[in-house]
Fold this protein.
Amino acid sequence: MNYKKIGSLIMAAAVTVTAAFPLSAVNVQAKKKSYGTSTVQILATTDLHGQSVKFNYDSGVESEGSLAQLVSVIKEKKKNLEYGTTITVDSGDTVYGIGSESIMKGTVSGSEYMYECMKAVNYDAITLGNHDFDYGVDYIQKALKKAGMNQKVVLSNVFLARSGKNLYKSSTLITRNVKTTTGRKAKVKIGIIGATIPSLTTLYKWQGIVRTADIVNSVREEAKALKKKGADLIVVAAHTGIGGAKHKLKADNAGYALTAIPEVDAVCCGHTHMDYPAATAKAAVYDAYAQTDEDKLMHGKALVEEKDHGASLGQIQIKLGFDANGKPYVKKRSAKVHRVTGMDKEDAKIRSINAKYDAQYRKIYDKTITKIEGSTNSYFGMIEDNPMIQLCNEAKIHYGLAAVKNLAEPYRDAPVISATEYQMGGSTSGDYIYVDGQIYQKDVLNIQSYAQQRAKVYYMTGKQLRDALDFQAAKMYQTVGQEKAATWGSETGSLVSQGYQPILGPSYQNNWRGFMVYDGVEYTIDPNRPPRYDKEGRQISNGSRITSLTCNGQPVSDQQVFVLVSRHITSEMDPINLKASRQQVLINKTDHMSEMLEDYMVHQTVNDMLHISSDSNWRVDFADRQNYVIRTTAKAAEQAKEKPWYLGEIPGTAGFTFYRAHLGTPEQKEDHSGPMVVAAPLETKATGDPVKIRVETSDVSGIECVRFASGIRREDDYVWNYATLVKDDQFEVSSNGTYTVYAKDKQGNATVSYVTVDNIDYTVAVAPSVTGKVTNKKRSIVGYASPSATVYMQGAGKFSQVKANGKGYFKFTVPSLKAGEYISLWQVDTKGRQSQVVSVEVSRSGANTPQIREINNKSTRIKGIFNDDPLCRIMAQEGKTVFIPKDSEKLYRISNLYNSSYKIVKGSYTCKNGSFSLDIPVQNAGKKIKVYGVDWVGRLSALSSNTKTVTEVAPNKPQLNNVLAQEGLLRGSIPGMKRAGMDIQIITDKGKVYTGRTDAKGAFSVETGLHQTGTIYSVKASDQKDGRKRTSAVAKVEAKSYTNFLEKYSDTTEIDSITDESDEITGRITLDGAASACVIVHGKKYALPFDSEGEFSFPLPDKKAHPFAYKDKVVVIVRSASKALMGVDVLTVAEALPDRPECTPKKLTEKTKKLRVVGNRDCTAVLKSGSIFVTKKAVAKKNGKYIYKFSIPKKLRKKNRAMKIYFVNTSGESKKILLRVK
């Protein structure tokens, strides 16, 4: 049987069947079914701010949004995902506000309840936000560990400053088994990277404890590392906003830039409290970015951000396909945000965890602070001044009056103003301030939102203040006459189409947040005028809506200086002055604003009652029209009816009402309010002196008088007819008690305020106060004590005393301060009374200041005393050269000393028992060397006395020119010393000694003879001074072959070609500034003259005895007037062309078999005929001629056959002889 044939037929049939039918249909058993698809779902939360349940511990009321509600949504979305897997991440700012602060202070017992709740959620990864660091690194580390969440933290761009190690792991890599749409199982490896804003927190001094890096660079590096570990998908959970279209290094907001990283698949943002994707004006800014597509994908990647306090949940879905080996790849991405509503129930487990803390918090919130007559509210806060906002601003001014007492002029006596923004208003019908009868702790938190946040004290000019007000007026108020129904929602749009005029613009009717109310000045807003700025702060007109800006009725000039107490300034508040404001902080860390408010309320409460009012220092100058509508809560109906502008109501939806108003009447523009008056004692510590009270007043009509009297008085008390006048905004009291301050404006309106003094004790002197922070870079400690008192200081290694001047000002000069040490201060006043001791800790703002020994022009080390942390280093700078320890280049590059254009010189460094030594090159006398201590985060010590001038103890170290072994000459100079007669000694490493002397320019030139390449010359200079010989530091130089310099210098000289028959050297020097030249031939050096054009012609010495030989080297060296090397060129001697050959016989016949050729050079003789080519070498030399012999091949011995005879050498061919066979 033919098995081969049968096999072929079977194979052919198989091919036919395979072609006719799909393989899977033919052999289902042999091939597995396809993987289909699966989905990785990412559910993201962020900026929870302590909102575990609906009850908000910062405001004391329930709000819509919480972690408990988000958990219910998370569970539902996990349940609805049929094929795939879900990961949950959080992008930081979890702990925040009263809830966390109460735990930290111990007023509420337990651990961080938010992390306990998150542990129950079983997040796959969380990162940290700026507010998570507000309480310090130690606190957040302990809180996370106690809750068992420390292993869930990913944070790629925060490092321990001392060790450089990550504070937490940069990322995590998790593997999930997923079910696909075809029922198969596959594995997906998901990497999650964390990052946070590089600026971290402003409320905690983290510099020196941790350091941060750029978000994008850190994520990019970690993403590449995860890919190498096998990650299929990479998700970034970053506490960062979306940011600009172009990323700037260490920018806080970088989400858009993160999506551009090729390895990144999804980004979960936070920090800026907005929803994205979303159909909002804010989101539309990012929709317009070049790489944002119609599906809201950025660079093709999914990005989400959610609003704060649990208001939203981000959802990203990544649809995966799989190759034949089960390797996943991305098919599609999508992103959306789920907004929490009242339909989303709170998760029972989260409520259960929260219940352990709830009773403790509610007890705090139910504490009564004070009582008021009747009620107050913020229902109409956008058209008129508000008593509760007034109270917040007065509390800040009260704080500021005392806080600025030790500031320098012009800030100490500048008017103190304040600003408070509406945190609530417009978004829901319950979103307003309302207080009735009693003010509880929860009301304080509700009134002064951002309770945990501290205020800052800034200075600002009149122009900056006007610009800030103009921005507020531009963005909030609707421009009269430009209403278009289409720009509003349907409800308001309908009213606009009917001819009604809304008060606020479309973007702000439902959100008053960010609107600042200023007190301490008076201003008028005219919405009839075109706005000066757009909502981003860009100037769009030259007009102004601020038609009046005064301080006590007097116009504010552009140059006038104010002190502003406010929360930290944001772009939402004042983008015009945002950059400048960061440089204008006078006091960076004050008390919490809620504590300021509570303290002020208590001080203003008399007979258990707080009397509140507003000073109407600002108003909106509406046109006199009756078609205005004010949208606010329906709860305001009774209060609205009491307003003189009230015309009626138009029902709205969702608990809102539109109140019809007649605004802009002449009566509404009259001043019927009393002045603002705030009084604050300038000393609150125990004192045996009278206490000064500073008073700040403000009224649009101007102040007629300010008086004070002891006891509690009302505005109509008869005592104001003769009470003591307040002069220069201050008065003084000599006994404890409560005092009333009375201010009356020029319209006769009056207001009173109260100030209590309880710290006068005539047995003691007041403790001295220190102005500013005492840091280890300060060289003085200044402050205030009693006038003419003796102030004592113990610390900084010394005990000293100074006398305060007539105003109490004192100043101690200190040599250096060490971080962490304490300075004790006390005073004895002119009455002999001693104060308490004030202890001030020296804080670190850089490395401690080293003490430097003398540096002279023979020193090879900088030495001194440096008492600081072992991680600190000494570095020095001379001009554009820095000297650093060998192990410290990385530290130098992050330090404040770093400059990319500086030359780095590394040296050995030791520091033991406080004594340090850093190797440096010897420096010339007169050089100035700056010596710094550098701490582990790159901060420098104070410079002060650590600039050392190098002293002269000998001639400066010689500066040596390049030495060419073939030149036999050593040239140099003594830098900075133009003195003749200094002795020069040169010693080679072989022990040979040469001497010379400097000329009047301090230069020298010493013949050393030709030496081998590699010879080391040690050179020193000496002189005589005061009968004593002084010898410089030794300079060394190695003799090098000219070949080392050819690449750099050869293009400055041209040597004409030379052959072994030449008798001169010619060429030219092409570089200006050449002063001298030499030529080296046959191992001897000769001076090489050249003319003004640089041309030279040098006859070969003793040509007969020493002619040029083939391959000889001719070297020309050119130097400048200062003997610096300018040019090196070398030429190799070539062979001359051979002469024309001489042949015997001179005529050839068919019988000629031999050919004798004679030439003048030993080369190669060539016989060439057609394609036949015969070469011969010389066989003999006779009478100076070389003889070559050829046997002529038979086939060439034919009649008329031509042959060419010539010589060839390295330079080419000689002239040819043509022979023809006869």
The domain at 1042-1132 is CATH 2.60.40.10 (Immunoglobulin-like). Confidence is low (pLDDT under 50) at residues 1-30.
